[in-house]
Amino acid sequence: MAEKNITKRKLYELQFCIHELELYLDTHPTCQRTLELLRKFRTAYQELLALYEKEYGPFIMERSEVPAEKKWRWIDGPWPWEINWTEE
Amino acid sequence: MWKYEKKLQYPVKIKNPNPKYAQIIISQYGGPDGELGASMRYLTQRYSMPYDDVKGLLTDIGTEELAHLEMVSAMVHQLTRKLTPEEIKKSGFDTYFVDHTAAVYPIAASGLPWRAEYIQAKGDILADLHEDLAAEQKARVTYDNLLRLIDDPDILEPLKFLREREIVHYQRFGEALRLTTDRLNSKNFYACNPSFDANCGK
After folding, report:
1. In a domain, B141, yes or no
2. Which residues of B touch A61 (CB under 8 A)?
3. pTM of the full predicted structure?
4. Other CB atoms within 10 A of residue B28 CB
């Protein structure tokens, strides 16, 4: 379980970096340095996300249909607002 | 967390502006049975829902309602393009225009601004799902009424799409209610609240 939380924490961090760069680009659309940085962070995020979702289920509904599976896993808990205090 | 998709759920392309129509359609944005209330109602109720599948359903329908909000806003926006002061006065749009110009603001057709009283989160799964079923029917009636008052096919097509979605959501909430009642122990059916009491229905 600890592994899950560490990976999730890294995903939070990468996603936050990506979001900050995207907002910055909204007002600086030609900044090459930011565009390059965004490419790097997006690649890192996608790689880690693929590992996480394979293990623990999808973050977004679009990726929730895995052909090999016989069940719709999207509705599986815990939902993001739920904390299992015994795991912490 | 949410992500934005740069498209509408169903296309809106209205050739002829009509401020009178905008003034009644806006009720499905900020009116008592509008899409803003629908989204807030379902997303708010999620936290006291005891079952994972119903949490999922509220999340997914609440999210779809945000897309409906955007469609209704796009309709109002397109219907209020390139208006002259004469058209504004003649159509009766002046009472909206004076406060909001041609912005899209969440109010009912009567002019009443959106209020949280339009929604409910009771913290009881049976009460909340019945609220949701009623809400979908009320929204469907509002679309029925709009379809009676409007004769432009550019407007009717997206309105008919939205009306259909109310019916589908009603169906899904009905199934959620059935799943819920199936899970409750018939012996203490109304004596406990599965949203609050730890062992209710278990």
Report:
1. yes
2. 60
3. 0.91
4. 29
